[in-house]
Amino acid sequence: MRQFLKFVGASLKMTYREKIALFWMFLFPLVLMLLLGAIFGHSSQANVTLGVVDRDNSRVTQAITARLGKISAFKLQNGSESALKQKLMDGKVNAILVLNQGFQASIFQHKPGQATIYVDKSSPTVSQITSSALNQVMGEIGVGMAKQVMPNVIGPSDIIKVTEKSVTSTDLRYVDFIVPGILAMTLMTSGLLGLSLSLVQNREKGILRRVKVSPLPLSRFLGSEITAALIMSLIQAAILLLVGWAVFRIHIKGNWLYIAFIVILGAATFLAVGFLIASVTKTLKTAEMASNAITFPMMFLSGVFFPLAILPAFLAVVAKCLPLYYLGDALRKVMIQGKSLANVWLDILVVAATGIICFIAAVKLFRWE
Amino acid sequence: MPAIQVTDLTKRYEELTAVDEISFHVEDREIFGILGPNGAGKTTTLEMIETLREPDSGEILVEGLDVRKDAKKIKEIIGVQLQTTVFFDNLTVYETIDLFGSFYSKQLTPDELLQRVGLEEKRDSKLNELSGGQHKRVSIALALVNDPRIVFLDEPTTGLDPQVRRNIWEIVEALRAAEKTVIITSHYIEEAEHLCDRVAIMDLGKIVTIGSPTELIDQYSPESNISFRLSREVSHDKLARIPGVTGVHDANGGYVLTTGTPQETRVGIFTMAYENDAVADEVSMRRATLEDVFLKITGKRIRA
Predict the structure, then answer these.
(1) What value of ipTM does the predicted structure carry?
(2) CB-CB under 8 Å, B87 with A210
(3) E-assigned strands of B118-244?
């Protein structure tokens, strides 16, 4: 235990004294978050301008339009479909909702009413956020109407209140999207680079041999390094969230213990990946290249900076093969949407499995020199 | 029981046999030197004893413990200074020693160790601020951190200037006083002569010979060279008749005689000078060194 604490302390001390590492670990993610937040944050904070085309022009569709109009985040615009589409392309409206002909009739036949949402895919964040918000609102209005049509399933719930809540909810804000994403990215890079580079460097310098000639077991040596790296990750997460909250007022609805659990899980997993890199590479150069080859695609493909929905379909499939996607997803759901760990069990499973597999492989392949 | 017993030790790297069936032992509290040119197999031998490398065949016992079975116990009682001496860059000397000390169940205090190697004033310096000699001293301090019974020093003075080398020698001599067993590799002949009780000379993975420096010199290169000047010229024939002389050479306006019995020959030089009305001057004797022994056995210079 004394050994362990001493080693962890020494590792932390070394990291603290490595100013360049500190920059990449702490300042870089902060700057990135502040920049992205400043650039994209405002556009999605503004109200969504929504064009509505009511082709059915029935009692039901009018009621829907009226209800949408009451939601403060939506500013409604009427007009012909073609004129609205032009406006959408010009960026003057964010999305168009078309209520198709026969909407009311299908509802009365207990079938879903047909509606189409047009969004501008060239401004991805806005369109993604708008469409998901609209989908949600429409879904909830639909539920309400189903209850009206079939009164026997009516519950005590207040439909309008539910609608309001989800629309003003944080789903609309890009910063709320990006902060968990950047946190996930930071856990990945510092986990990967932190352990792999220092291990490879220590091996190249012969420090590992010097350690090997002492009675300290490998497991304790690595355990100490990993613990120090985990502590660093927790500090990183705390700073990122604190700044995110102070500057952007991000809404952290989630349970702090859940968040800490996922942060530690993510950090541990990427440390294991880094450990594997250290085990299979020989020189600092190749370790660096391997780390970059892993981090860069993950950074851009895993939906850290933007929603997966805007990627071409095949890239979205690729993204879902990357563990960072699952970590980002879990963090976002737990932090921003306030979900419980049970809701993100698949994310947790994928991330943990990645970590365990990498760790086992790394221990098998580890070399002292 | 010897401190170290090595029997038929072999290590191969693909085609190259780095260590070729060597056997030797190191007595308790002895300073034992392994001498040889680069690539002779010194470091490989050391690293196998230190449990860093797995032998291909043969047996190594350290205080009766088998390196294959009791590596952990051996690690507790040995102290190792590796040839490459690089440490964590961002720790101070004190912190480094303290950290490495924590790896052992027995630990000397960093301040005590710094005093032993004469680095007290560098206590709070970072490792990357130290000179080469100071680096070596830190690595020797690290080798002593667990107060080991057996200390391995792998080329502790390579690349250091003579003054610093002498400082390191003093540290090694202090180890003798502290009753440690020391195994030291070197390719400085005078270092081995100065420090070691016994020396093994290695070449091409084999131990060519083992013995105390004096024994080796007597055995392989028993002759001495005596150089002197004369006030007037004397023929080589007359010089060759001086008792004990086996060879005569001119050198720098004087003469050099090779002899197996230097005392007798010295007296003979003055007698010969007196008989020839000459005065002998600047008489100096050079005993053979391990360098000569090495040259004689292996046919090459050690620093080749």
Answers:
(1) 0.76
(2) yes
(3) 150-154, 181-186, 198-203, 206-211, 224-230
